[in-house]
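Figure 2 data, in text form.
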Amino acid sequence: MNAFEPYQAFAAALGYLLGSVPFGLVLTRLAGLGDIREIGSGNIGATNVLRTGNKFLAFLTLLCDSGKGAAAAVLAAYIWNPEAGLIAGFMAVFGHNFPVWLKFKGGKGFATTLGVLLFTAWPVCIGACATWLLTAGVFRYSSLAALVALAAAPAYAYWMDLQAVALMAGGLAMLGFFRHHENIARLIKGEESKIGGKKSEPAETDQNSGETP
């Protein structure tokens, strides 16, 4: 990237503010389902919204969380340039993970990451989605599938000679691994819940087993 320019700070702020909108919390409250942070993992992502039993609301949360990442990248690229789009996209994921409105306790950013990649490099996004599906299908762990997909994304971008995207995707992968550290510990111990396994009990203090978005 070039030397620091003022527009980069504006792009970062734009991305963070868009990314920090907690759609899972907003949608569940509008639907009269209460505070999503008080059930399951306490996570604001689509996986935890699904624990309300409302599949449509979970799907809508997934779309909104992905959409805000794409929107941040699109708006910044349109207003400034593609580099600003990458900055805003990264910060959208950061905002989802650490939203100022919720005392910096948000989701894990996988869905938002996919939204960013969809705009900045859609072939990388397709590759990451395919990697998630393959890993989830073989091992039945949503969190493991997300981690493998996050790790694969920068490799795909580098292979496609998309150096700037590879750098951003690498940063998002590191952020994603940090946010999944409890899942990683459970995977190592063999305590992580599998897809389709027993549902989590309402509101533990730690993050959800198997949580991804």
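Caption note: The longest helix spans residues 55-79.
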